[in-house]
Every structure is written in structure tokens, then in C-alpha cells.
Amino acid sequence: MRRSIATAVSLFGLLALAAPARAQDGAPADALQEGRRSLTFSVPSGGGASFGFWTMRSPRTNLGIDVNLSLRRNEDSDEDALTDWGITAGPAIKRYFPWTSGPVAPFFYGGVNLSWRSNDLGGGGTVERTLGLGLSGGVGVEWFPTRQISIGGYTGLHAGYSRETQENEALDLEASRSAFNLNTFRSSLTLHIYFGGPDVTRRPDVAVERP
Asked: Residue 149's closest CA among 41, 43, 51, 50?
């Protein structure tokens, strides 16, 4: 919880710095252009990997699909290896603030995700499987050291529904339960690699009158 609060404070601090940053000149000012695309990569704190593909639909709207993979294998000398793995995927949107024109680009974030998790609990072959559906919303920032690269993150609220099932084939047992939850969340720092779109680095040809 403390880390979530610290992340939120840091992001809102960057939001406060974004207004004076808009007056700065440089390549990042034209990084967000309609038609540009980006690949995203991050390493969540709990392990695994996240990646995504995004497309700028307008100078203020960025649509994408994010995928998160998690895998954890616990080795124990007294028991068999226990495996916990899962996948989360879904569409998301970033809506940049209208005054974004500098190296710091704040945005509103929204996303829907579907998740699946399988966890080997040990204890005679008990397996726990969880299917979830979630809705997220919040705010975030991207910092553009160059026009092609940015580093960013976001924080906010997440509402979700999950159905958990525990099975043990050896004992022929099965139990399930459903739950709703509402909590705060924070993303990992994410690297964005932008490409494509209009070539704003080219200057238009200027006709020169010759004597």
C-alpha cells in the first residue's frame, strides 16, 4: 500500500511539472502524432514480463493491447516443484492532456482485461485456477528523452470480478467461489519504442528565386 501511495505521489508530481515543460522545444514535442505506433516492454515486480502494441489514432488518443505473462516455480527439497503461472490481456486507451507539447506527456488511462491463472498448491495435487475480468482507470505520464523513446507509468483504481476453482483429481474434490474487488494499482515503469507516422524531421522544400 505504501508503495502504491509513493508511486501515485511521484506521478502527480510529474503532472505538476508537465505544464512548464510544455514550453520547451525539442524532438519530443512532435513525438505524439497520428499514425505513429509503439512497442512497449516492462518487467513487473512480481516476475514475468509485459509487452504491448499501440497505435496513435489522433495526436491525443493512443489505443493499444497489453499482455502480461507471469511464471513462478518454487523448488522445495521436501515436495515436488510448485508452478504458478498466468496471463492477462486486454485493450487499453491513453488520452493525453490537451496541453501536452513538451518532453513530459500526462494522460488519462483506461483499460479492460481478461486474466487466467493456474497455481499448483501442492498438498496432494491440488490445483487452483482463477478466471478474472477487470476494468481499470487512472492517470499517468510519459517522459520523452527522444522522439522515438519514452518511459512512463500510471496509477489508479481497478475493479474486478474473479471466479476461483480448486481441484484435486486424486481425491475427486472440487470447490469454487466468486469475488468482486476494488483496489488501487500501479503499473511498472514501461519502455515505449515509437516508430512510423509522419516524418516531421524533413523540412519542406523552399523555392529559391535566382537572379
From this structure: 41
